[in-house]
User: What shape does this take?
Amino acid sequence: MIRVAANQLPLPSRRSLLAEEKQRRIEEKQRRIEAEERRIEEKQRRIEAEERANKEARLARWRVLAGTILTCGLLFLLQWALFGPGAAAALGVRAAAFVGAAKALH
Assistant: This one.
């Protein structure tokens, strides 16, 4: 094994030191660019997820509204079928108007 003293090693040239420094700066800049791209992609994914969640919530609200209207209508018809038009008229003015219109048809 050959031993070389530290003071006998060739010193790196100024040109090679500058090239290494330039390469380090390029790599650091590339890392910053990649980190920024990842941040932008993550933000885009969050925005898309939020849009999907908003759409789901909007559809859920419409389903609840439709279910409520359907349930009220079915209960009104059930009350009408079981207890007759008089019970339906007791619900209020609109129901009475509906009953009156139904009687006029007969």
